[in-house]
Amino acid sequence: MKTLFIHKPLFRLLSPLFSGTLVYLLILLINNTIDELGDNFFGQELYVCIGLAYLIQEYVRVSIVIFKRLKRPSSFFVKTILQIISTIFINIALVSVAMYLYFTNVLYYTPNSNELLVFNSIFSVIALIYILLYVSHQFLYMVNTEKLEKEEWARLEVEEDFTDFKRGINPELLFESLEAILVVMKGNPDKAEQITDSFAMVYRYLLSKKKDELVPISEELKILKELLQLFSELPHRKIQLGKIAVDESMVVPGSLLRIAEKVMRTTIPSEVKKMAIDILESENELAIQYKHEERIGKSLKTNSLNYIQRDYRYYAPEPVKVVHGDVFKTIYLPKLYLE
């Protein structure tokens, strides 16, 4: 869409043939009657008009390219007016010089003002039509681009809403929890009830806090303990909370839960060996730290937490970071406070 058809080689080759013939036909109609067209149609002047049409159309095409690359003036309207005025003036100069050379060197007399006026008027109209084609193409391109941008924003918004919905539901954890409940229910109904309570508390928190921007970290830690209790019934590495040394800051709802789940799914499963997650703080950051024993091809990296990065970007300039040490892997979250 962005490439205008006047730049196509086939159009550049054929268009002047038709426009030059049309110019010659109009000049004949001005100077002769319709009955005399047949006698005077084919002549040297026809080829001169076609050649002049090639010159004018190529000049206008080059001027369109030049004005398109100009950065100033920035206003599209001002640039268009400037382009029309400059193109028409240069077009008049080119036509006048070409006609003067043709009349003096071929026809051996000087053209009068009426003859120059006819040629300049017709070829100026052709140049103006070319510019209007370009302007209309640009307007159409801007309108279509705006529509495409709106459609793209709508598509991204739908995808974002679906991703948020999927994250809130978390189908993988949902099905694993239901399977664990079904397995335990037959042998130990009381334990199955405890798993169901933890499962319900986690999902109630995720769904009820979906519209909240921030929650106290103490509330998040309470649900995190229930989530880790739920993890203990799943066929993954058993995880428990280790050191907790944080003040009453705020976090994005579900961020600690999602990090804990990501840690669980990237760590080598073990039925006997447990992992401790420490939650510490510095002056400006929360640090979620654990001894990493990661699965092959499932390492926890910064781009694994893109959705958390996006959420925290609204509240803090500092990015979410993942630092991989020899023993510990640490996820840093910016500390948030309500002012």
TrEMBL record:
Domain Signal transduction histidine kinase internal region residue range list: 166-230
Name this polypeptide is given: Histidine kinase
InterPro entries, per database record: Sig_transdc_His_kin_internal
Signal sequence, renumbered to the chain: none
Keywords noted in UniProt: Kinase, Membrane, Transferase, Transmembrane, Transmembrane helix
Residues that span the membrane, as ranges: 12-30, 81-104, 116-135
Pfam annotation, one family: His_kinase
GO cellular component, one term: membrane
Gene Ontology MF term list: phosphorelay sensor kinase activity
